[in-house]
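FORM 7B: Structural annotation worksheet

SECTION A. Query
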Amino acid sequence: MDQPAGDKPLLALRNINITFGGVRALRDVSFEVRAGEVHCLAGENGSGKSTLIKIITGVYRPADGAEIEFDGKRYSHMSPVFAHARGIKVIWQDLALFSEMSVAENIAFSEVVGRGVRLVDYARIRSIALDALARLGVSLDVDLPLKQFAIAQRQIVAIARALVGEARVVFMDEPTASLTQSETDNLLAIVRNLAASGVAVVFVSHRLAEVLEISSRLTVLRDGRLVGVYPTAGMTQSRITELMTGRTFDAKVRAASRDDRRVVVEVDKLTRPGQFSDVSFTLREGETLGITGLLGAGRTELAMTLFGMLKPASGTVRLDGRPVHFSSNRAAIDAGIAYLSEDRLSLGLIQAQSIADNLVIASLRKILSGGLLSPGRKRDLVDRWVTDLGVKIGRPEDAISTLSGGNQQRVAIAKWLATEPRLLILDAPTVGVDVGARAGIFDIVAQLADSGLAIILISDEVPEVYFNADRILHMAQGRIVGSYDPRTYSLHDIEAAVYG
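SECTION B. Predicted structure
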């Protein structure tokens, strides 16, 4: 795509090296972005992308010999205050927002804090927030607490906050991971407008179609090293995947008939007013049922109802032929239902706790001995699932936050498999996970299905359900509006139905 960028970089880094605990996280990496350019920074989780961004924004200081050039001036390193003052902004994948504060306070936070003791000007805070949201073409109630909004709306708030002030370079780390197609299209339009106004945008996304659509160049990192810088013109998703991983992946439809298997779940006219209505389906042993649709279709609310977190107004659910009415999610767990939340950071895992504690937290009864937790049983349970799911860890006692997104997601899946469920509900299991780790997660899903586990796979990315589910249900405005067999429908047909 055409870019209004000149040849001279606005920001350039050369000879970037950094070591943590004897491990070289970055080795002789160079990177540059031009004013008015949309540039993609690509690589698997753990490749060094976040480390590089933290060096640019002054969180980390590189080893001696590094050279950072910004707007024609050279520096050996940055500081957070220095970088922010010069308009270098970052939208982190974990958002870093304040759930108890209002939307307006979250957006205007950096503009009104730290300027001496004075009365709070709520009118100015609202004005800043409304102006930022208007640039995104989004309308939100800025007076409501952030905690009342879904993760997709929180992502929009984080983007709006980054655009407050004089932004020169904006790093976007997985900005579309929780957005619908229409919201994504709107965001990409905003990105183009920012670039046209001279703002440099560095786009980090595991959705490679977006990378090709929005950026003019991409820098690829692998294992802390620079693979190269490439124009996106003529580039393909498979080629980017190969550059990022050093491997090739062949997407193929895994769908198969499970009609001869025993029915595990029967849902009949399940309704929760305002969220979903008249939802009916069956699910058999070893079957993976894909549910797709745009955000707001009621997919997550349906999953939470099946898991006992929400109560239906009418309709029935049968598990192994018996009607079930869950008073809580604990009752659902006891009945054999497991639910992997779409929000791994807040609901899926406890970031400050250890890998081991996160893995066993839903299975504490299995590691009791004489009414007390047994360290030996806990160790055995952790060792089993870390090995079975191929989780790459240092020590089980390390905080879960030390793992890459892909490995965190494997621990989250292991946590639920340890409960020995009959039904596993996976709600957007690859949010924030790179292409290599995604393939590994779906290999695990296939193996679980082959072992007889009934699985519901929820995703707003149609290719995920198309290649990994036996059947696909399309939800829109709280209803099932379509059912597809990947063996008889093309990917294009289903995408056209879902994305409209």
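SECTION C. Observations
The domain at 263-499 is CATH 3.40.50.300 (Rossmann fold). The chain has a mean pLDDT of 88.

SECTION D. Sign-off
Analyst initials: ____
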